[in-house]
Amino acid sequence: MPSAFSYANASDPVAGELVQSIQQGRTVTGKIIDDTGEPLIGVSVLVKGTTVGTITDFDGNYSLEVPSGKNVLVVSYIGYKTQDVTVGKGNQLNIKMEADTQALDEVVVVGYGVMKKRDLTGSIASVKAADIVKSPASNAMEALQGQVPGLDIVRNSGKATSGVTINIRGQRSLSDVKDEFGNNVANAPLFIIDGMQGGDFSDIAPADIESIEVLKDASSTAIYGSQGANGVIIITTKKGAQGKTKFSYNGYFGVNGWAQYPDMLSGEDYMQVRREAARTGGQWSSTADDQKLFTVEEWQAIQNGDWTNWVDEVLHTGLVQSHQVTASGGTEKTTAMLSAGYYQEKGSFKNDKMDKYNLRMNIEHKLGKTVKVGATTQITHYAQDERARMCYGVPQLMHLLVKRMMKMAKWWNIHWERMDR
Question: Are 359 and 326 in contact (CB under 8 A)?
Fold first, then answer.
């Protein structure tokens, strides 16, 4: 190979060469190839610390003006590791890219087991634990807002007790049937929690979830038949790990309600507004007509100086807090995890709040080289309160009663699996 050419990558230092400081700008050219020697099209080449950059052409060639004092190129391409390559004395620099197999080897849960991302043919999105706990939310699905393409998650209202409406790739049904909590269930996807169909995702603390897979197209949801017509969401919770017992804590505290409301009028300011409105309609000409503008009760309150700021009476600054403690560990044959959590949300309206307590435990034991058994239990307790509505009649009162009741959710999941499959 001619001496004017050289190959470099992030792990190979410039052998036998001291990189000198560039005194003036120069043009650096070269070719970028993959590990098989094939040229790569559209590779991004950027001078580190600047906005000067270019991309490779159809033959993998690039040409770049490097400013003086800069001698490091940042080379990046989808599916390949990003490299910082040092420019030597020459103006010709060929670069060999290294494939990034880590993302392709990531395991994704599908309807019939697990697969590597490289082997997937259906439309599946995976969200891991670190991304789930980034957003403060009462449930994991609300925390996924904006993280998965094609997954629409909308909170039903601003109430502390509000649920969410979930659609995968839009609505598939014209029905708008809702459950007792206001969630649209006609277009709701099918939920699979730790291999079990059904269950309520809001009962599980976001910190207890290992991953969430969203199956969006027909090929990935086919195994579930018509029940998967609206899409399928697979939730995998955390399990105990072999080793010493480890304790962890996850928590946050925040405030709710920074909306701006107009200042309420009182005293002479309020009287003047009412007078002006009545004068425009020909009902007021002097202060002698003031009493005609109000009811008997209102006029009596005005005479007594009783003024009520209804914004202050109804609204306040709410808060939200979450605390989760987890203990996990085990031996070579038996692993277990225990977690307990508390979540509280107070809305912007007074007397609008929700307290949620959750306790979760799972244990797994190997009976031999081929069989493993386990059990999971979840207990969730809700204490909910919301402002009463102006509704009358038995159906409406029963609706309020149901929504005010404390909810206890308890479910068991006992499973076994062969370890040699």
Answer: no
Burial class of residue 41 in the structure, from the number of CB atoms within 10 Å of its CB (0-12 exposed, 13-18 middle, 19+ buried): middle
Closest CA to 330 of 368, 360, 358, 362: 362
Q: How far apart are CA 246 and CA 356, in angstroms?
A: 24
> pTM for this one?
0.58
Q: What does DSSP say about strands 61-66 and 124-128: parallel, antiparallel, or unpaired?
A: unpaired
Domain regions of the chain by residue span: 7-96, 107-237, 243-249+317-418, 267-308
pLDDT averaged over the chain? 78
Q: Which one-letter amino acid corresponds to residue 146?
A: G
| Confidence at residue 15, expressed as pLDDT on a 0 to 100 scale | 39
Among the residue ranges 95-109, 184-198, 335-349, 398-412, the one predicted with the least confidence is: 398-412
For domain 7-96, give the CATH superfamily: Carboxypeptidase-like, regulatory domain (2.60.40.1120)
Find out if CATH 3.40.50.2300 is the number for domain 107-237. Answer: no
How big is the CA angle at 399 (ends 394 and 404), to the nearest 5 degrees?
Answer: 125
